Amino acid sequence: MRRTRPLETCEIAVGEGAVVAAPTAPEALRVKAFLVVQRNVVRDYLDVVALAEHLGRDVAVEILAEIDSYYVDRSGEPGSVLTSLVLSLADPKPRDTEVIGELPRDKGLEERYHRWDDVVEVCRSLALRLGGAV
Amino acid sequence: MPVEFRNVDASPEDDVRTWPYEGLVTVIDRGLVGDWRPIFAELRRSPWGRVARRVEQYLSYREPDGVSTLFALAVERARVDAGQADRAEVAARVRDAVTRSGLTNAEFARLVGTSASRLSTYLIGKVTPSAAMLVRIERSAGNVWHPSAIG
Predict the structure, then answer these.
(1) By CB distance 3.0 to 4.6 Å, which of A8, B27, B84, B117 could disulfide with A27?
(2) Which CATH number fits domain B86-150: 1.10.260.40, 3.60.130.10, 3.40.50.720, 1.20.140.10?
């Protein structure tokens, strides 16, 4: 899978006249969604869920529904990246399963994401909406 | 390339309700999100209908994977949402009946032989009345005798 557009960034002032370029929030969501499909570790699902909650699920679905305009896979078929994303979110099976039981030990993780079942529920809700099943 | 039916005399462009079983299976197995949408739309239109039952039938022996999970979730969600919509409609009909009767909630509850607290659970949709009770509620709303109305 490869990127087909430049990263969309914004400038963030970090004090003393310094500015850094960072991905916009929608872009961050796309990148994390790409990682769900490509890398498939617990952190990727957590990031997608947290960003979707931050942006609002409606907005997140609108952004992710267009993911094929930003990434392309080997098949090159329109909708194939979205399909891969929907399937990963419908049935999250990250490779690093050992992490799942240790989520409460993650110091930077909000408590609402400590239960993997709750994370999966949000993933599935996004999958159904992205797939047009709700 | 959109999914195609090779072995059956139908096309994915046809109404999903007319697809042969093999066509449905082909779309589930080989389709992408865009190909699945007509199936999902039909699941929502008729959550216990023929297409829904065929999807369930296929899922009963299909290899478990993301696709199977997605379709199982879609069937389940369509049914849950339909059940909630049905219960909300019943509550709306009860509210409409009470409004039409011109009575207070307590008076109307007495009229149909239930308690005010039970009626309030019907009104907010927390409890769904039996079919017989709904018939009584709707019939009673039109049969209220208002002494003041006859002078």
Answers:
(1) A8
(2) 1.10.260.40
Predicted ipTM of the assembly = 0.89
Contact present, A85 and A64 (Cβ < 8 Å): yes
**Which residues does chain B have within 8 Å of residue A90's beta carbon, measured at their own beta carbons?**
66, 69-70, 73
CB-based contact, A36 to chain B, within 8 Å: no
- Token code pair at residue B126: 């927390």
A61-79: pLDDT as tens digits: 999 999 999 999 988 888 9
pTM of the model: 0.88
Domains in chain A: how many in total?
1
